[in-house]
Specification:
alpha/beta; 397 residues; five-stranded mixed beta sheet; CRAL/TRIO_N_dom_sf; Phosphatidylinositol Transfer Protein Sec14p; CRAL-TRIO_dom_sf; CRAL-TRIO domain-containing protein; CRAL-TRIO_dom; 7 strands; 13 helices
């Protein structure tokens, strides 16, 4: 489907759920449209991430797991603390909703350095927050921000991680509502996890924060700090890398104010670039680092790539079938017709942390009608069931 056809979008081609259907006008369907060619590139279905992407800092005290394989294996520490977490919920006489799968629970455990008590509080806090946020109905202000290109998704890197671009100067425009800015940001996180990532193989994104032309006086420092803190509470290991472009001395000063509230693992992913042109005015000085992780066809010209700069920013659509992925990570054979869903065991885990024990089953899960179970695999979803989601079920991040 091309941009010119967006007025012909059917609801089954969107991420609109039954609870949203009555609140979303047909002319607004384009804001919920999911381009299958972009959301599920054929090659990505046969992609297995390299071991070094599964976990950052394997063998260290607090490694950060970036990908949670569908069938494991998981480390002994992960298996042990997961069982302890289940027991802690039981001791608190708190039922675990069905949506809090083992993979989700492990994500929160890892994000809390395997502290069971902190993880319990974090999960309870997150579930309450998620119930308040859902469903994600875009306001007119949200849609205007998407049209302006404040936030947009463009291309994928060599490991199929999508690029999330923030055009920060938009927040300096007169009449922009800060509430819309943050609600749009949460919607974008939800949209990425729900529709663009793939469980067990592509679970993070790369952020490009374009600060070019943003007046320092227009940066909402307090609100920004609040959002970044909340992101760390609810978004566990979702950002693979963050490029901050056109970073001035003033922006570095503001970062110094905010950075004490950021986790160490978050700060280690941030790459600050001053920006600007090279003497021949042809290439940006920061293009090499971005192009190290992505094929040029996936990156806009303004960031050093070969793709045309967007004039229509939403919804995201496929721009190129070239990704530059390591052929060893693609398991499709000439006779294969079925994607490989079996993930190879992690030698990194076994050597650095010890041999993992077999995945254990949850002791008890109950159905939560407000927060459905995880499912961001649109190509293999079962037929719609009355009262349940159509082509897209909402996740809880």
């Amino acid at each position: 489907m091309s941009i010119d056809d967006f007025d012909q979008i059917a609801i089954q081609d969107t991420c609109i759920t039954p609870e949203m259907e009555q609140e979303v006008a047909k002319e607004d369907y384009k804001y919920y449209y999911v381009d299958k060619r972009y959301s599920r590139p054929e090659t990505m279905e046969y992609y297995t991430p390299p071991e070094e992407l599964l976990m950052i800092g394997a063998g260290k005290k607090n490694p950060e797991r970036m990908i949670y394989p569908l069938d494991g294996p998981y480390t002994e520490q992960e298996e042990t603390t997961y069982e302890q977490l289940l027991e802690y919920f039981e001791d608190k006489d708190t039922e675990i909703p069905e949506c809090m799968t083992k993979r989700r629970a492990l994500r929160f455990l890892n994000g809390n350095a395997f502290n069971v008590k902190k993880t319990y509080k974090n999960i309870v806090q997150h579930l309450e927050w998620r119930e308040e946020m859902k469903p994600f109905i875009l306001t007119q202000g949200d849609m205007q921000l998407l049209d302006k290109g404040f936030l947009y998704i463009h291309g994928r890197d060599k490991n199929f991680r999508p690029f999330l671009i923030t055009n920060a100067i938009i927040i300096a425009e007169k009449g922009i509502n800060p509430d819309d800015v943050f609600h749009t940001s949460w919607f974008m996180c939800h949209f990425l996890i729900e529709n663009i990532l793939k469980r067990g193989s592509v679970e993070n994104w790369v952020e490009i924060l374009d600060l070019g032309g943003l007046p320092i006086s227009k940066i909402p420092v307090k609100a920004l700090k609040k959002f970044m803190i909340e992101s760390q509470i609810h978004m566990k290991s979702r950002i693979a890398k963050m490029f901050l472009l056109y970073v001035t001395w003033g922006i570095r000063t503001i970062y110094a104010i905010i950075s004490p509230f950021l986790e160490k693992r978050t700060k280690e992913k941030i790459v600050m670039k001053k920006g600007g042109f090279t003497p021949n005015q042809e290439n940006f000085v920061f293009n090499e680092e971005i192009l190290e992780i992505a094929h040029p066809s996936q990156i806009e010209e303004k960031y050093g790539g070969e793709a045309e700069n967007l004039t229509e920013h939403w919804p995201p659509i496929s721009i190129s079938d070239e990704y530059g992925t390591d052929p060893e990570c693609i398991t499709k054979s000439s006779s294969s017709t079925t994607p490989n869903t079996h993930k190879r065991p992690s030698r990194v885990h076994q050597e650095a942390v010890g041999t993992s024990s077999p995945p254990s089953q949850p002791k008890h899960f109950i159905t939560d009608p407000i927060l459905p179970t995880e499912d961001n695999e649109p190509d293999i979803r079962p037929a719609p069931v009355a009262g349940k989601g159509k082509n897209c079920t909402c996740t809880i991040f």
